[in-house]
């Protein structure tokens, strides 16, 4: 049996741990051979491969990123994409393809598997933790840890100067990183994309925190929006480089808080550091187990499935089902955490 | 409503986060008052209390240990223990008691609640993660993270000198810390209490690792035992201070590996650093949510229950049921991880 | 003897360690009493004080920020500033004033001491390490450590996507943080305020790095400027919030690199996380020793002096001399590090 | 010009950074070729070499240990050792040899250079920081950082149980790691090899700490000895494995404290984790600069010299002079730190 492996979408700590898990078990227990496709779907599209065996996966467990490279290439948007992929797999004599990726990468895998008979197994990957059907995705714990450490650090600087510190963390469509790191970091306000926020309410929490002689930390997901959403867009459009991220909601919010409360406010945008570097122990554990279970699915011929975490078990679910719906923060959970606001 | 809180057993990162969660929600949402009992069951036994309100829990989220102190005092082993506890609670006008602790502390709470009508709610705590009915206990993730970082560090020293490094981690009865940190740290052998190990097999993994030009890391839980168990006990008894821990299985194993393989071997006993210091983001999250749900159980009058993690939900289970059985490593899971041995 | 203490300017990890060192030695060895002035020079100006004794300094060694608060208030710019300060000191019966701060705070202390007979001892503080007369200032090592860890993390994300990552670090007038963290983090280009950079040269380093199949990391101090300086200013002026920091040189440079090389480039602005949180072991050591030596200077009546690090010794130098000249990166040292560019 | 490089003695974070600095500058600026000798002096003795060029040093900056391996082999104790080394160097056409190591390795280099005409340049390496002529050695800052973090963690566990925690750190002949980490970690007692300690005095500090309602942390260097030194040796000799380290002074001291004060005491022996893993930013900086200056010494034909740190400068000193005397903790400095005891 010859198995192909590819990683697609944004990088995420734990990708290498998945690859290592797949290859170690595949070679040692099942005697499989492997081929790596480079840069997500670009690899099979263009027939760009790298050798993948025990030597290639030595020492990669603690390394962030992916040894296979990644891209956002979508074969359904490429001319003759499906035919070219099938030809690549045939040429490489690949009988199964393990695709590690997020909504887009897995969406392609689902269609290839269901509609075009390409034998795919999926491994879910999103640093945002917003993929249905799995309790957690790897990379998320690492990102939350990095953001929490940053918030820990910002507390002392906020209190020395009695300033508001706004921390913008990742999360375009779901507020998981904001919610977890904000709670763990003892933030006084947490704003998520799932629920438009009221700037006046934010300012009132900020003010009450100052009244208690403490300096407030506001954690805001990059995708969070005020109730009057146009404000962000309007200001964002003035950015000289077209980078929404850097004059995003964090900057806008700090400015609004300053204007409305008269208190000094500063923004820190954590950015790419949240997705780089060595994975946390939890993510290494989860990613490795995903890898071990993905190769088991291949051995079982259980294609069109994705591995997923349920409690402490790794299970299999249809890829399509898993990517059908974004997993957002439950309003009840957000309300639960709200006891710490202000 | 006046609620008592105590923490019993060994300390564990996250205890303070639980206390903070209880008090913040109890005061702000339910208008409760709180009293802290010092040093586990010793507090209510001797009527030793500390004030517990919002000011007391300020800033304690990231701090390890417990602001309430802890002990292993067991009221059932104390003269008139139950009567004295009931009198203390009555004197303090406490109508509910939240007990945060491991098997022993919760065992007492279960009996007090079930047999003596003391209205207890439990919060499970064990750094070893060996308590049934909950997917994880707080403190465990922190311990695994510390052990993993230590293993990461030991790799380079092992390889520079081509030595065996044996790392002894916590876990008297269950191998969870060894299993998770060993997997996450890329250990070449992981030995757990649940399964007696064969020294010859360990030496054969060690030798095969050297043949591949790498230096082996052996992670061993303090409670792991060789098939010929007498060996450890016999050697352990020679320790001059009566401390089994420090001439425990790690030391014994390194000596055996040296003797049998002729390779240099060294031991590191991680010890107390695994249970101290600031909790990981995951543990802060879990501990805080346990606290929030424990006070909800009090509000609901749902006594005799313990909060527990199931997937991403916090649920309630009978305390007695939860402590009835030790949660050990499933042989199937141990076999799954075994693909990385050697 | 009654001694006043104040901290001025931006916060910096280690301030609390200085205060603790002063108080512990002053109380225990010399029997002094202390009074803390709040928020830098604002404290003595407005007679705003806090009690400062052994209890106040318990547990503050590992805490970032300053328990005394800080501000940028300058008494020479306040009406009757000097008279009000003298009155405050007289009212508090303070016979010596220890001022912990940067160029501005120490500049005031130098004048107060030399021209107005206020008995001041200085402790140098600048996270930027740009103060003459001392080998290092505390806080710098912590900032470099944080920036280095961020750069370590960004390497894997850069290589997974074969992107340029531009990291903007602190340093308005001196490139010490950029130089040290860039070297320690294995950056491929380091740009400092001391030497205007040539964008074409930067692009050529970037390109040569890609040719070697690696992704480049560019570390740029916030105060670095291209040879054609107008470019930054022009673009900077378009920022909608008037925050130069966030559409500063890092953003501008990434855009230029993208435009000129055709490679994707991203920017991370580390911001306030560099100055917050627990100090590194080195900074705790240095700050504590500065505190111990500052109180010795008070005991010796050696006013108008500042403590400073020379090799491994703490010495005393005239405050005025120390703040007269900015300590910038020696061109020879920058050239030495340049061997790693490209 | 063809240059040999070897690393000898115990491993130390930063060794790879030195090697990288040497090779990058040697190849890029001077056009030199390099050969690596394996495992310290064993390499040239047995003619065991590895290729050493730009590809070999890629990515090694953040990695602990040494890519060249290490050993304690001493050519002066080997039959025909000097002749064999000279033959190896001749065969490899090596015209200069850079030796990175501690007292023993550099002692050999000094004699080879001074008495036998082998053109050696030295780079000082000792995690214990006990080498004369240099302000600091690389690896020391990393070790101090790791020990400080461990002490930080132990505080909370000590206070939760009101126990004494004894932390045994590295340092056989010099107490630098104990002194720096003990100060930075807020230890209440620090014991170093340079000054025999009085157990009664230690117990009195411990007791006074408990009286103030805090739990004491005692940091003890592995080479520290009580005034009645026989006690340690006698107890140490009872260890069943002949490992002095693990039933060393830390264990002995905890037992004595328990016996004399009646307080519970526990020991943590940090061991090998102190010397493994990624170097701190400071050590990467120092080690890299040592490498850059060592190759400059080769270029200048300045043999028999060792690079050394003086303040912020890297200078050259005669190897022999540098290793002639152990750098121990100055009694005055120890007294300075003593203000924090008790």
TrEMBL record, chains A, B, C, D:
The record marks 104 as: Important for catalytic activity and substrate specificity. The keyword Oxidoreductase does not apply. The record marks 125 as: Important for catalytic activity. Diphosphate binds at residue 10. The active site is at 128 (proton acceptor). Its EC number is 2.7.1.90. Substrate binds at residues 126-128, 163, 170-172, 222, 266, 272-275. Keywords: Cytoplasm, Glycolysis, Kinase, Magnesium, Metal-binding, Transferase. It catalyses: beta-D-fructose 6-phosphate + diphosphate = beta-D-fructose 1,6-bisphosphate + phosphate + H(+). InterPro entries: ATP_PFK, ATP_PFK_prok-type, Phosphofructokinase_CS, Phosphofructokinase_dom, Phosphofructokinase_III, PKF_sf. Its cofactor is Mg(2+). Homodimer or homotetramer. Belongs to the phosphofructokinase type A (PFKA) family. Mixed-substrate PFK group III subfamily. This is Pyrophosphate--fructose 6-phosphate 1-phosphotransferase.
């Amino acid at each position: 049996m010859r198995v192909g492996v590819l990683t697609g979408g944004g990088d995420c700590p734990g990708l290498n741990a998945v690859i290592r898990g797949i290859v170690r078990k595949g070679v040692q227990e099942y005697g499989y051979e492997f081929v790596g496709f480079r840069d997500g779907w670009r690899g099979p599209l263009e027939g760009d491969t790298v050798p993948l065996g025990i030597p290639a996966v030595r020492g990669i467990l603690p390394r962030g990123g992916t040894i296979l490279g990644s891209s956002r290439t979508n074969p359904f948007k490429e001319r003759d994409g499906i035919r070219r992929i099938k030809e690549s797999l045939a040429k490489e004599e690949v009988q199964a393809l393990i695709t590690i990726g997020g909504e887009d990468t897995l969406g392609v895998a689902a269609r290839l598997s269901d509609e075009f008979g390409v034998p795919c197994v999926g491994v879910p990957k999103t640093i945002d933790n917003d993929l249905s059907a799995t309790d957690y995705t790897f990379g998320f714990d690492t990102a939350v840890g990095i953001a929490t450490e940053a918030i820990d650090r910002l507390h002392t600087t906020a209190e020395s100067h009695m300033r508001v510190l706004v921390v913008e963390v990742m999360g375009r469509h779901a507020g998981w990183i904001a919610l977890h790191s904000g709670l763990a970091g003892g933030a006084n306000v947490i704003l998520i994309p799932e629920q438009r926020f009221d700037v006046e309410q934010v300012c009132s929490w900020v003010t009450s925190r100052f009244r208690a002689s403490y300096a407030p930390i506001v954690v805001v997901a990059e995708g969070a929006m005020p109730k009057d959403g146009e404000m962000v867009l309007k200001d964002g459009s003035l950015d000289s480089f077209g980078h929404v991220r850097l004059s995003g909601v964090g900057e806008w919010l700090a400015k609004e808080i300053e204007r409305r409360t008269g208190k000094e406010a500063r923004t820190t945008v954590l950015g790419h550091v949240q997705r780089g570097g060595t994975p946390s122990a939890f993510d290494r554990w989860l990613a490795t187990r995903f890898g071990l279970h993905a190769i088991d699915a291949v051995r079982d011929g259980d294609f069109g499935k994705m591995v997923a975490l349920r409690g402490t078990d790794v299970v299999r679910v249809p890829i399509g089902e898993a990517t059908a719906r974004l997993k957002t923060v439950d309003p009840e959970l957000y309300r639960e955490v709200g006891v710490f606001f202000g």
